[in-house]
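Allow me, if you will, to draw on your knowledge of protein folds for a short while. I have a record of one protein: its chain in single-letter code and its fold written as discrete structure tokens. Kindly check, if you would, that the fold set down in the tokens agrees with what the sequence suggests. Thank you for your consideration; the sequence and its tokens are set out here:
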Amino acid sequence: MSTRRRLSQLLLASHIGLVLLFAVLLLATGVGTIHSAVVGQARTEAERAVSDARQRLLDWQRELNVGANLLAEQPTLRFYLQRGQLTKARLLVKNFHGTSAIGYIRVQVAGRTVAEYGKPPPSFTTGLIFDARGRAWRVVQRDIRMATPASVVVAEPLGDHLDVRPSSDLVAAELLPMSTGQIVTNNPWSKPLRAVAATGEPETFENVADNAVVRIAVFRDDSGQPSAMLTARVAQEWVERRIFEWLGSFGFSSLVTCVLALALAGLLAARISRPFAQLAQDAERLGSGDLETPVRPPKTFLAEPVALSASLEEMRRQVGSLTATERNQREELDAVLDGVDEGIVGVDADHRIHYANRQFLALVGQSREEVLGQPTDAVLLPASSNGDGAAMSVPAGLPPLERYTPAGKMRPLTVRRLAASGDREVLVVREENAIEAARAMRDRILANLSHEFQTPLSAQIASIEMLRDHLHGSADQVAITLADAQYRGTMRLSQLVDNLLESVRIESGEMRLRKQPVDMAQVVVDALELIQPLIDQRDQRIVRKITSGPTLTGDGPRLFSVMVNLLANANKFAPDQSTIWVEMEWTPMTVTVWVEDEGPGLPSLSSTSDLFAPFKRSPHEEPSQRGTGLGLAIVHAIVIAHGGQVKVAVPEQGSGARIGVVLPVGESA
């Protein structure tokens, strides 16, 4: 009973907290939303006020124009003025002034005022003018068609023509002079007025002086020229009143909602806690090992406790059978793993063996009890510790093969590591076959030979370069010729060693690209400079068409190796005193470097599937300088790693070979 009360109290407290939190969040977000909505209404009110005021001004302007036209075209007035009957003319103008409600009328004949009624405007300039107090006047002048020059001038002050809401002073419109020179700099209105005067477009501003929203527009005269600034302002008090009205309605509805939600929360908390208390007792009984007593479904209106009780009952019935089923499945899995040809080893996160099948135990010559729980390095020793090497080359996309030997035995094993759940691993172990052993031995021999050759070759190249510098300018042409020949031979040998090392890296999957900006044109130029001594030796000629272009992203030294191998191939297979063409072609997406020679050429384009395979030689007669058959294989591997391709095309200059390297511009693959 006490447990049920604690659950109900927790549910009630959580419901109350959620309701209060919801109310606070709703109020916090509601204030901002209400304020934004009211400000939006104020902006709409200001825009409407400007629109209404503009229409009133246009009506006011139209009435003055009509009155001036009627008076100027009055035949009786023109008759009186032509015959000099000025008294009658004044009486006519006076009657017109009294009936038309026009503020001011003046009639002039030959520059002399004949009749004048009403308060005169501050100026008789036609159009919209302002007096000293900033009050707007409208002045209209019309000529009277008669022999003697005569005119009618009508004028009227703005007065109440702009009252958009006569009963409220919270929304008001006003007409201001157009001249920005009259705007006081330190006035809060100065910046908005200048902005609208500069653009000529109506704009709405917020928080100007004591006004929440201000709408300013340019008022234009009959000719379309700006004549005044029409403003409408909504006072801050108007916005505050609207916000308080909205908050009152919102607060009352929120209070009613919270009260109802709290009452409902208390009722639900009490109803929800009862069935879960019963389920807690049943779960405790199951946890203690009582699988005989069935789980009773609780009496509740909720579907979840009933479903949970059914699940607990189903679990109770199945737990007993699951133990036996799991045991059977484990025995079946052990039988399957014992039936495969490879050894299977399960390794946990601490690198300890927690499973080993029969084949693995036979390979290492130990029992299951001796292997389980042991670290892997205590059962399997890396082959490198016995001097046999370690990593082996595998096809791309597969986990690498590693070479091991069992502890205390000399039997070579290959191990492939497969990731399992978490930090666990599965090792697939089998005895190394003859093909894998031969490939591993070849890779080790090539890597060791290449590595051992690098140091003396580097020293030899440095010594020869110093000797050539020493002989520079010497008269001993024989010594210079011998030094140049020695330099060419050493460079050729260095290239062969580099190709051997690169081929080992490619086949073992250890080639990694260092991505950096590369100037491909400069790479081609550098490769030509390096190969030039070999070109001069055979009296060959290079025709280059190298153009600069966008920067590539790739491995500069390896792209340099690509160009050196292509040029070296052309140098080897082209005859003496022949021409080698080097061209660059740029497109928005790629750059292509073509190398063409006058040698015997390549096989027909339909039979070049193995052209880029390592250790493959040309089917034609061997050149005078033999190679390893790795050049094009290295070129192909490096270019593919950069997301490019190697093309073999029909020669354009002769009957030799034409090979192109296509690389992407910008980010490489």
